[in-house]
Amino acid sequence: FILLSLMTALLSAGCDRMITPRHAQQLKDAESKAAAGDFARAISLYESALEDRPGDAEVHYKLALLYDDKMNDPLNALHHFKRYLIIAPNGARANDVKGFVKRDEVALLTSLSGDALISRAEATRLRNENLSLRKELDEARGRAHIAAIEQSPTPEKTKGAAKQTYVVQRGDTLASISRKFYKTSTRWKQILDANRNVIDNPKKLAAGQTLVIPARTSSR
Length: 220
Prior knowledge:
Elements: H1 2-35, H2 39-52, H3 57-70, H4 74-87, H5 94-113, H6 120-144, E1 164-167, H7 174-182, H8 188-194, E2 210-213
Antiparallel strand pairs: 1-2
Helix pairs in contact: 1-2, 2-3, 3-4, 4-5, 4-6, 7-8
């Protein structure tokens, strides 16, 4: 019995050594691809890493940011943000993620009420998925005895001074620039409207372009 237990422990340790380097290499490669602007490949590598360790909250967070900022895909961003909250409800990024979830839900509803970007079937699937994820999140909060904290909104200051400008960097998107200046990716259209005379393709910004960043206005 002792010999069998020892062999089992050694086999388990061997498996860990085999899996851990592969997982670490996938994350390293994904970060490298993201830094190089190959966001689709980075997403693929992160998704592969999740196949080995679906409970890796940090990978879900990084995937959500890629979908949100680089791919303008709030649907998939929401999925990974919510998986992060289920896995790590008390995580270091939990408060930020809760804010991102609210903003992406608003962005998604806005896209549906205006120029529909996704089909009715996808909208139904999203609603059902959100209900399921919310239930999981509520259960996780209950198990962890987390009290719901109401965050008081911080009023934004309206700037009446000269317009701000920004020089586009490699890999920038309207959504990522929006997050940089407004702390949310949902105001990308405001930036586009202010720069239609210089932006030829909203989905592919040219590095070195100088964009006008409109002053913040109250969201009320």
